[in-house]
UniProtKB/TrEMBL annotation:
The lineage of its organism: Bacteria, Bacillati, Actinomycetota, Actinomycetes, Streptosporangiales. Residues 35-226 form the FIST domain. This is Small ligand-binding sensory domain FIST. GO terms for cellular component: plasma membrane. Residues 227-370 form the FIST C-domain domain. Its main location: membrane. It holds the Pfam family FIST_C.
C-alpha cells in the first residue's frame, strides 16, 4: 500500500472476496489524513454473488464517502495488476470542498431509439465524470459518442466493466446499491483539479490521405484511388516485422485536427480495420467517417504502446507538474497479453508521475477524450489524474 495525505489505495488478493474487500478498504482509508470523500473500487471474482457481497462490504465500510465500483476480469492497485485472480482494489481520496454527485444510468426504448436516463444536471464548475458501464446492457458507444449534445465538453473517463463469467455476471455499485445493468458514475465539481491522459498506443504507417469516397463504414477511395489499392501499396513497402503487425491487427487513425500541418502519432482517433471487400476494392473500418476527413493506417505492438504511454505521461508531468493520485482504466488486451506483465501500465504511471496512489481495472473498453471529444477505445490506457496544486492561470484543468 502507498500512503499519501489526500489519496491512497489498497489491494488484497485471495480466495475470500469479502475478506479482500475489508483488507483493501482498510488499507486505502488508513492512508488518508482526513475522511474519504470519494472511494472507487474494483473486484475480480469467479462467483457474481461473492462479488456482490464484497461490493456491499466495501460500500458499508466507506459509507461516509461517495462510492462507485464494478466487477472486472482484473484489477490494478498497489503499483501492480492482478488478472483473472480473486482480488479487490480500493482507491480513496480526500477532496476538500469538491462536490461529488454519484449517478446510475438506465436506458428506455422509444419507437426508434434508446434514451439514457439518470444523468445529473450539469453545472458551470463541473470538471469531469467517471463512468463505469455494463457493456452487455448499456449503449456505451452511442452514449459516449453523442455525450457532447448533453454534457458539452465535459470529459468522461472510465471503462466497460466485465466479469469472469461474462454476460449476466457484471456488477456495478454506487452508494450502497448493486446494479446488474446500465452504468454508474460520479460527477466531479467545484475545487478539484483533474486532467486526462489517453494512450491509444499506435504508430502510423504510410502517408496521410483524404477520404474521397465512402459508404457507411466502407472506405471506397483514399486520395482518389481505390482504398484497397492504397492499402496494398502501403503494406508492400513495409518491412517484414511491420507486415506481421498488419496481419495481426491493422488499425486506422482518423485525424482529430484537420488543419494541422502534420499528422503524427497521437494526432488520431484510432479505430480497427474490420476487413476488406475485394469486389468493391474497399476497406471496412470500425467507424463512419465523412468525405474529406484525413486518415492514416496504423499498427500496434508492445514497444509502440510502451513508448506512447511513457511519452504522454512525461508530457503531462511537464505541463501540469505535481500529481498525487490517478485512476487507471487499462484494456484487458494490454497487461500480460501485450507486455508480458500485468503491472506495465501501473508501473508506467509511477515511473513518470512519481510515487502516487494509482488504482483501477482491466476494462472491456476504455472511455476517454481525444481531441476534445469523448470516445470509447480499445487497447487503450485511459487515466484520470488528480493534482493537489492547481496552476495559477488554470485553476481547474481538464
Amino acid at each position: 500500500m502507498l500512503l499519501t495525505s489526500r489519496f491512497a489505495d489498497g489491494l488484497a488478493v485471495g480466495s475470500d472476496l469479502v475478506t479482500n474487500a475489508e483488507t483493501a478498504v482498510r488499507q486505502a482509508l488508513s492512508g488518508l489524513s482526513a475522511p474519504a470523500d470519494l472511494v472507487c473500487f474494483f473486484i475480480c471474482g469467479e462467483d457474481p454473488d461473492d462479488v456482490s457481497r464484497a461490493g456491499l462490504r466495501v460500500m458499508s465500510m466507506a459509507s461516509g464517502a461517495s462510492v462507485i465500483g464494478c466487477s472486472a476480469t482484473g484489477v490494478i492497485g498497489d503499483g501492480q495488476g492482478v488478472e483473472v485472480t480473486p482480488a479487490v482494489s480500493v482507491w480513496a481520496a480526500t477532496l476538500e470542498g469538491a462536490r461529488l454527485t454519484t449517478f446510475a444510468l438506465d436506458t428506455l426504448r422509444t419507437d426508434d431509439r434508446f434514451v439514457v436516463v439518470g444523468l445529473p444536471e450539469r453545472g458551470p464548475d463541473d470538471h469531469a465524470a467517471i463512468l463505469l458501464a455494463d457493456p452487455y446492457s448499456f449503449p456505451t458507444d452511442g452514449f459516449v459518442e453523442r455525450s457532447q449534445e448533453v454534457l458539452g465538453d465535459l470529459p468522461l473517463i472510465g471503462g466497460l466493466a466485465n466479469a469472469i463469467q461474462g454476460r449476466g455476471a457484471v456488477r456495478l455499485f454506487a452508494d450502497g446499491e448493486i446494479y446488474t445493468e446500465g452504468a454508474v458514475g460520479v460527477l466531479l465539481s467545484g475545487p478539484v483539479n483533474v486532467s486526462t491522459v489517453v494512450s491509444q498506443g499506435c504508430r502510423p504507417i504510410g502517408p496521410t490521405m483524404a477520404v474521397t469516397a465512402v459508404e457507411d463504414n466502407l472506405l471506397l477511395e483514399l486520395a482518389g484511388q481505390p482504398a484497397l489499392a492504397r492499402l496494398e501499396e502501403i503494406v508492400s513497402a513495409l518491412d517484414e516485422d511491420d507486415r506481421d503487425l498488419v496481419a495481426s491487427g491493422l488499425q486506422i487513425g482518423v485525424a482529430m485536427d484537420e488543419y494541422a500541418e502534420r499528422h503524427e502519432r497521437g494526432d488520431f482517433l484510432i479505430r480497427g480495420v474490420l476487413g476488406i471487400d475485394p469486389e468493391r476494392e474497399a476497406v471496412a473500418i470500425g467507424d463512419v467517417v465523412e468525405i474529406g476527413r484525413t486518415v492514416r493506417f496504423q499498427v500496434r505492438d508492445a514497444a509502440t504502446a510502451d513508448e506512447d504511454l511513457y511519452e504522454l505521461l512525461d508530457a503531462h508531468r511537464e505541463e501540469f507538474g505535481r500529481v498525487d493520485g490517478a485512476l487507471l482504466f487499462s484494456c484487458n488486451g494490454r497487461g500480460s497479453a501485450m507486455f508480458g506483465t500485468a503491472d506495465h501500465d501501473a508501473v508506467a504511471l509511477r515511473d513518470t508521475l512519481g510515487p502516487i496512489s494509482v488504482a483501477g481495472f482491466f476494462a472491456a473498453g476504455e472511455v476517454g477524450p481525444v481531441g476534445g471529444h469523448n470516445h470509447v477505445h480499445g487497447f487503450t490506457a485511459s487515466v484520470l489524474v488528480f493534482s493537489s496544486h492547481p496552476t495559477a492561470d488554470r485553476p481547474y484543468d481538464h
